[in-house]
Amino acid sequence: MLLAVHLALGAALGGGAATLGRRLLRRPPRGIRVPAPWCELALAALWAAALLRSATGDLPWWWLPVPLALGWLAVLLAATDLTDRRLPDALTLPAVPAALVVVWFAGALAPDPDMLARAALGGILLTGLYLVAHRCAPGALGLGDVKLAASTGTVLAAVSWPALLLGALGAVLVTGLAGVLALLVGCGPRATLPHGLPMLGCAWLVTAWPVFG
C-alpha cells in the first residue's frame, strides 16, 4: 500500500511539475509550444520511478532531489530538442548552478566529503571535452550540447568518476547507433536523433540507479 502511495505521489507531482515547465517554455521571446500530455506522462513516470526506488531503500533519500531535478530538466529539454531542434539557454544555463546546489545538498548528508569537488571538476571536464568536439565538428555537436554537458557532467561525477565515463560514453554510443539505424532505414540526416536526448537519458539512468564510489 505504501509503495502505491509513493507511485501515485510521484506521478501526480511529476505531472504538475511538467505542466509548469511547459508553461515556462511558452514564455517569449522564443517561446516553444509543446503539446500535452507528453511532458506530463514522461515526468510522471520518471518521478514515480525515483520515489518508488527511494521508498524501497534502493535510492538514498538524500540523493533523491538529484534524479527528480534532472528528470524535470531532461523532459523539458527533450521536448524542445525534438520539437525545435535546440536546447535553450533559459534551461541549460540555470541548470548548472541548480546542479551544484542539489549536489551540495546531497554531499552535505552523504558519507563522501569529496562529492561536491568531484562534481564541479566533472562538469568542467565534460564541458571542455564537448567544447573541443564542437570546435572540431560544429555541425555534429551544437553549443547547446556543450552547455548541457556542464550540468550533466556535474551530476554524473557526483556519483563517481566511472559514472561520468559511463554516462558520457553511453550518450555517444546511443547517438551513433541511432545515426547508423537512420541510414540503414533510408532516413535523411534530419531524422537523426538529437544528441541532447541520449545525454539526458543516460545521465538520468546513472543518477537514478547510482553506484557511489
Automatic annotation (TrEMBL):
Transmembrane segments: 61-79, 91-109, 115-133, 140-159, 165-185, 192-212
Pfam family, one: Peptidase_A24
Alphabetized Gene3D superfamilies for the sequence: 1.20.120.1220
Keyword match DNA repair: no
Keyword Flavoprotein applies: no
Domain Prepilin type IV endopeptidase peptidase: 69-174
Signal peptide residues on this chain, from the entry's feature table: none
InterPro entries: Prepilin_IV_endopep_pep
Keyword set, alphabetical order: Membrane, Transmembrane, Transmembrane helix
Superkingdom of the source species: Bacteria
Protein name (database record): Leader peptidase (Prepilin peptidase) / N-methyltransferase
Originating organism: Actinoalloteichus caeruleus DSM 43889
